[in-house]
Amino acid sequence: MSRIAEGQVxxxxxxxxxxxxxxxxxxxxxxVPEGAETAILAAGCFWGIxxxxxxxxxxxxxxxxxxxxxxxxxxxxxxxAVCSGSTGHxxxxxxxYDPQKLSYRTxxxxxxxxxxxxxxxxQGPDVGSQxxxxxxxxxxxxxxxxxxxxxxxxxxxxxGGIVTEILPAGKWWDAEKYHQLYxxxxxxxxxxxxxxxxxxxxxx
Length: 204
Prior knowledge:
Its EC number is 1.8.4.11. The protein has helices at 6-22, 46-57, 79-84, 104-114, 140-156, 182-185, and strands at residues 37-43, 62-70, 90-97, 122-123, 126-127, 133-137, 165-168, 173-174. It is an alpha+beta fold and 204 residues long. α4 (104-114) runs parallel beside α5. The chain starts with 5 loop residues before the first helix and ends in a 19-residue tail after the last helix.
């Protein structure tokens, strides 16, 4: 997950083994409110992604944000397994939003401002395929918007350096409960230093 003290990592990993045995990760799309749409994004440590979207869009159409794992090749992955890089999953955030108040395009433009999409399998000091940048679309419309926004952001903001993957959303797994709302529940907890909103001009 994130850069934390070695003892804390060991403690979290032991907790994960217990939690996975008792409470496997589960799909949570059933929790999405009727009429809402979802966006799935990977941009490094998922604590910061969730926290930033809630903070900046909580009263602007965002209905919920959950952290979890996507894009891997194993069932019910645990934090420890994902951190090992062996499962192929990315840490990600599933956003539920009201499309009448918040657009998918706005969500993606913010995505390209709030993290560094030019580093492969890395975000700030956090290294590994689980920290890769990715957009996981749910339908053809989202795919089209993702490709358009990415092209413009690549040309106008990131000088051709974007390495973000754009892939169909596969199976989503909620992360363990203690990862949800982590920075709300742990004030002063780790935040990736590359997670901040860049001051960039509007895309044309």
